[in-house]
Write the structure tokens for this entry.
Amino acid sequence: MALFANDDGKTVDAWEALAGKRYQCLECTAFLKVRKTKSRFPHFYHLKAAPSCRLYSKSKEHFRIQLEIQKQIPAAALEKQFPAIRRIADVAWEEKRVVFEIQCSAISEEEARAREEEYRSVGYEVVWVLDDRMFNKRRVRPAEAFLRGRSCYFVRGESWFYDQLEIFVEERRVKRSGPMPVRFSEIRAARGASWPAVLPPLVRERAQRSQVYFTGDVLHRALAADLGYWVRLEKQRARSRGRAIQNVFRYLCRVYLSFLNQLLSC
């Protein structure tokens, strides 16, 4: 599914497209047609399967999240092409040099790094929006752990965007705060902000790596409130984990010594 298509070198949106006419996909150049029904918003569909095309695999939930972000930021453009890096951004806020990348399915850490580096090479900051039907679970995949140290937020349903404080232990999310509603229309520059000297590790990482933040997110809260409780909690978790490892090691040593004593007594 796609919202835009190529029509002899011109970009046309699904609302203006003619039924029955063939268009071309902006990403893979395969042939498309428009579908307009009362129960679904207009969109283009591929005439043949194209599993390697990112636009082909987009879900209706993905499109609704795009439209909701544009609703918050009317000046933003949907499915903007970046020919220099061969990318199509879900939502691009050109005035602020920000692209929003929506993720409703699994992604590798390598792909996440590649998108961030490529968009930055053309002067754009990536803001990630992760669908919490796939993400924000107890198990944390490497890509999600990587992204949460950047400008990264969650979406619930298709219109409620939020952030949270959290603690990871290896591949597990062991603690998280309540959701913090975020307003994407209220963007702020992260560079030059006077961050507190003591911050939880993930918040500190985001402050160091992000170019922007938004009203309501963890960086905004860090400037307005004391996050010392989360710093102390993280240290307690680290100490508890260290003690647990020591206990396991001691137990294994006792088992080994007991086994060795049995062998020597034979």
Remarks:
- Residues 228-265 form the longest helix (38 residues).
- The helical segments are 60-72, 109-121, 142-147, 201-209, 218-224, 228-265.
- The chain has six helices and 16 strands.
- The chain has two domains: 1-52, 59-226.
